[in-house]
Amino acid sequence: MKTYKPFLWLFLLIALVISCQKERSFESGGKGTPSDGSLQSGTTGDCLGSIINGVYKKDTVLNSTDYVDVVVDVNVPGSFVISTDTINNFYFRATGNFPTAGTDTVRLQGIGKPTAAGTNVFTVTYDSTQCTFSITTLAGGGGTAVFTLAGAPGNCTPGTVSGAYTVGTALNSADSVVIQVNVTTVGTYSIGTSTLNGMTFSAAGTFSATGTQSVTLKGTGTPTSAGSFNFPVSAGSSNCSFSVTVTTGSTDYFPRTTNSNWTYQFDNNPTDTVRRYVIAATKSALGNTYNIFLENSGTGPDSSGYYRKTTSGDYYQYLDVGNFFGLANAVWGEFIFLKDYVPASTTWTSNTFTGTYTDSTGSYPISVRFKTDVEQKDVSVTVQGVTYPNTIVIKEQYEYSFDGGITWAISDVYSIYSFARGVGMIKFEPVDSMGTIYLQELKRYQVF
């Protein structure tokens, strides 16, 4: 069984102007003094908080239900024109006036008739800023699929929620819900929820086979309030629902909240994964209280470590250091694996742990310790196609001494960890003595 240390994040970004956010849709041109502001965009240029509505089919003229909402930070009120480029014979546009400064939502109406099926990436332009969103155009032929929702009329099956939902933080590609449907007639489909608490979930595509099919509903928008929200899904005469929990967030790079869970993929193999999760029980040791993490790689639950955090931002792991270093005896203790308040290039070493090392020549007293370097601080790191901002990258090395700590040697084995704020560990790269990397990457997560 493969194991590792986890590190997680929960992002706090409370928008002070949420209570006065507005949604605008304009058909007439803006007049008067031009406004000044910017489109809200992520580190990869995607339009933050955007909500895409409608069904887009080849050779079908767009109508009033085909639109995209984008979020704008208005610095100076006045007239505006916000539009996209023309892709695949259709585009989106809105004009009007911002009466006040602040955060505003603008509805861009879709115009045109797609001429080909496929994914279309649109660039939105306002003032001197740009952001992007993508829309999938379905094949026009073949008719519309007929299907029912699994779990109807109760909870959607399986209703697996992925991602972290935080007040004021725009949803990204990691925020999604998996449901199943029973297809009786193949064809195109569009499944979506209404907008609830600033969020919506939707998917569109083509069912090419009958029977049970899984559909991933992608989340868009920005949550405005904390709590549990029940999203109804409708398809024909069947209805089901799923629940999404929104939190106020935290600044932890390693969340330890009960029921939070993460799934990691090994060495780019989608069938080789492990799920790690936090249980309600805690462990007391050394006068401290640690949160307990478990993991399951398909063979049943096993311990994944004990962790705590100080108010200053020191993250500790309590573990059997003897087992970790391959010593002959158990040596329990704790060490700081992460400091979230120090700049890049900061280095620290743990306390010294003593035990016995045994090989074919005999047994010897040994001292061991951890050495940690902050290689990057608050950078953006992309894992499995998802970009995580505010990430700390550290290098963990392992030192040993056979003369009571007078001289130290560094093992050829080391580890690189990436921890994203509000999410936790997003990548783990242990390197063996031959330089081989055993990659573990975050595939999905849910932080409570």
Descriptive report:
Strands 1, 19, 20, 21, 22, 23, 24, 25, 26, 27, 28, 29, 30 and 31 form a 14-stranded antiparallel sheet that branches. Residues 1-30 have low confidence and may be disordered. The chain contains 1 helix and 31 strands. Strand 7 (90-98) and strand 8 (102-112) form a beta hairpin. The chain has 3 domains: 30-137, Sandwich (Immunoglobulin-like), CATH 2.60.40.350; 146-246, Immunoglobulin-like; 251-446, YmcC-like fold (Beta Barrel), CATH 2.40.360. The chain is mainly beta. It is elongated.
Concise description?
This protein is an all-beta fold. The protein is built from 1 helix and 31 strands.
Task: Provide key terms for this protein.
448 residues; mainly beta; Immunoglobulin-like; YmcC-like fold; 14-stranded antiparallel sheet; nine-stranded mixed sheet; 1 helix; 59% strand; elongated; disordered N terminus
Write the layout of secondary structure elements.
Blueprint: E1 8-10, E2 22-25, E3 36-39, E4 51-53, E5 67-76, E6 78-84, E7 90-98, E8 102-112, E9 118-126, E10 129-137, E11 146-149, E12 158-162, E13 176-185, E14 187-192, E15 199-207, E16 211-221, E17 227-235, E18 238-246, E19 261-266, E20 269-285, E21 288-296, E22 301-309, E23 314-320, H1 321-325, E24 332-339, E25 347-349, E26 353-359, E27 362-383, E28 386-401, E29 409-420, E30 422-431, E31 440-446
Parallel strand pairs: 2-8
Antiparallel strand pairs: 1-30, 3-5, 4-5, 5-8, 6-7, 6-9, 7-8, 9-10, 11-13, 12-13, 13-16, 14-15, 15-16, 17-18, 19-20, 19-31, 20-21, 21-22, 22-23, 23-24, 25-27, 26-27, 27-28, 28-29, 29-30, 30-31
